[in-house]
Amino acid sequence: MIEITASYADSLAPNSAAIKNALGLVQKNKFTSFHRSEAGDLLFGECQGSGSTGYLASADFTQPDKPVFRCTCPSRQFPCKHALGLLYALDQGKTFVVAPVPEDLASKREKAEKREEKRQQKGASPAGEKPKKSSKAALTKKVAAQLQGLELLEKLLLELVRAGLGTVNDKTLKNLNAQAKELGNYYLTGPQAELRRLILLMQEEAGGGFAYSMEQLTMLHALIRKGRSHLKSKLESGSPEPDPGSELEELLGHSWQFAELKRHGMAVEGAELLQLAFTGYDDRARQEYVDLGYWVQLDTGKIHRTLQYRPYKAARHIREEDSFMDVVQARELVLYPGGLNPRVRYDEWQPRRPDGGDWEAVARSAHRSYVDVLKLVRNQLKNPLADRMPVMLLHVAETLVTEGDEYIIRDERGNMLPLSDISDAGPGTADLLSCVRRNRLQNIALLARFRHLPGEGRLAVQPLTVIREDERIRLLY
After folding, report:
1. Cα separation, 272 vs 253, whole angstroms
2. Using an 8 Å Cβ cutoff, are 41 and 109 in contact?
3. How many CA atoms lie within 13 A of 248 on its CB side?
4. pLDDT, tens only, 301-318
């Protein structure tokens, strides 16, 4: 039986309303019984419903990393509030009495076990090991179309630069939006989103200095130049398949699948992750909501990102991610091609509560020299296609406060970094440091986000999470 925590139950809930309703069932003593199987891998109980008879809910952990929830209620939510309520009840210390598994539930478990056995047997066969691939001819045709699309994008940008950003008007923006929509016909969803981002920036900076627009233009120029070279080399080599070693694939629009990355050897077994910060935002350029988490891999100390994209049209059908406080024990962790904070995904996993050893590992992972940190960050930012806001874990020997109430962190060698918010990175966090006692900001680990501000020509450092031996303070929750 895995360790059940409230944070783990939250992560399984389809939405915040389900969490509230499930907790309400426990608090109002709506459950008339709590039971578990003799092996401890099944929780079940009866909960009062709106009718005369109650609902039988269960949480089956025969496969701990793939729990199965069942309930006799008519709810279409999965898991429903009754099944979730069992988890919250266990976390709150309710007594679960060992009892025989109800016949109907036992029958469903048996059928599920047989289906799993068949699936494993099928997966163990040579045919089952080979993931579905697109034909070489289809991939070659796709690459050729992408090259045509890049040519179209380059002509569009050259016309824009020749005319000058100061001449952009409503007619120009309308034409650019139409061209951005057309890029989707060339399998260029990445450049399509980046062109939309340029349009949004030009609208925001109309009449201004166009600093961020120029930065975006530089990015698009690099994407066209490097993308064209990458695609041509694939055609010349006769290997049009996506290259798992190149970030350009995703930038051009390829959507990596879990099995695909695993097949290319991009998987790590038995990794443990601890989330240090989380945020969600509306990406109007991608026309998607984005759930972004920053995690530390405990055995390596590397900072990774998890990203979930929820398209506007399908957002209500996709569960929104949230902050997660437990350690994720991933059976397999796949890594995307990336820089300082590569994106990761995991499928089958179990939670456990973090302990002192985990936080000691986090503290040991913190970089102790700001000179070395700045070198790593600047090397990444030199690449216009790299993530513009890398995140690093820093050791802070001392935190100073100026007369203007600005915070400055210092490393053990006396090197200093001023802290501030990043205007295009969502909610501010620097001011929240004033809510933390000054003596709690000495000899700490600090998760910080970096951003070169093109309009000011300086590097901004934004605090995200304060990590001490006895507490963690998330400024970006």
Report:
1. 29
2. no
3. 21
4. 999 999 999 999 998 888
Select from 334, 261, 262, 323 the least CA-distant residue to 297.
Answer: 334
pLDDT at 52: 77
pLDDT digits (tens, 9 = 90+) for 4-47: 899 999 999 988 889 999 999 999 999 999 999 988 889 999 99
β-bridge partners, 35: 44, 97
CA distance 266 to 344: 10
Measured between alpha carbons, how far is 9 from 15 in angstroms, rounded to an integer? 11
User: pTM of the full predicted structure?
Assistant: 0.88
Overall size of the chain counted in residues? 477
**Structure tokens, 254:** 């390829």
